[in-house]
Amino acid sequence: MNTAELDEALAFACALADDAAQRLLGYFGQVEGERKADGSLVTPADLEVDRALQAAIRARFPDHGIISEENSALYSGEALCWVLDPLDGTVNFVWGLPIWGVSIALVEQGVPVVGVADFPVLRQRFTARRGGGAFLNDRPIRVRPDVRPDFNALIGLDSRAYRRAFVNTSLKVRILGSAVYDLLMVARGSEIACTQSAVKLWDVAAAWLIAEEAGAAIANAEGPPFFPLQPGSDYKLVRARTTAAASRTLWQMVEAAWQPRARAAESK
Q1: Residue 218: which of 235, 237, 194 has the closest Cα?
Q2: How does DSSP classify residue 234?
């Protein structure tokens, strides 16, 4: 895709996010979640937004593929494919916490080239296109430069990571309840690193690009790589532990500090 095509796709993704945000706000604080086979929650809000996003994409780009948390996750090798998470942070959403949002990515030849993540209660929209930088509410963002990993710096974990591992570091831990938002907090410099222990493709597709464009080092520390997407793969079956940090040195520091609970106990 050339620059004009990327800009068009980004504008379309922002329009999708506008519609999704209004639909989600209409449900916030008024729905209960149901447990899916994988243990995660789903609400009527997830399902309505997923249907609306897919219908809009198919009407505008009928030849594009779509991978969605709430629908098909099979990648058939399309040159252009949208990756959707209609509601990231569903548990927060159900319990009335404001850290939740919609994540929309466009992948070209298996690699993210457009990303939008919108958190409507917080009034925060993060955007990026490949080679164009990362933005929060249209203002450029970058990872925190030249940060020292001392006790005043923050690292984001998910609750699974907190239960299954010991991170041997002086950094202060924060659990925000949204994989997307944790990655974005690294991108904007509010955290110097985060690790998410069991993410799927739609949890990271948009935020991965935004974090990269903001200067973050990001990679899967455990599990197969997400990118480039592999034709024939069912991404409902693919999980990974993804770590992002303000620099490659900090990424390596986080991984050196990561100890599964059993190993941590043995080392004492």
Answers
A1: 194
A2: B
| pTM, 2 dp | 0.93
Tell me the H-state helices in the chain.
3-27, 44-60, 90-95, 159-164, 179-187, 201-213, 248-257, 261-266
* Helix, strand, coil percent values for the chain (each to nearest 5): 35, 30, 35
pLDDT in tens, 166-201: 777 788 889 999 999 999 999 999 999 999 999 999
Please state, in angstroms and rounded to a whole number, the distance separating the CA atoms of residues 44 and 46. Answer: 6
pLDDT at 21 over 70: yes
The residue behind tokens 């993060």 is 126
Task: Output b/e per residue, 23-56; b: 16+ Cβ within 10 A.
Answer: bbeebbeeeebeeeeeeeebbebbebbbebbbeb
* Residue 94 backbone dihedrals phi, psi, to 5 degrees: -65, -35
Domains plus CATH for the chain?
A: 3-140 (3.30.540.10), 154-266 (3.40.190.80)
CB atoms within 10 A of CB 131: 9
Q: What is the 3-state secondary structure (H, E, C) of 80-104?
A: EEEEEEEEECHHHHHHCCCCCEEEE
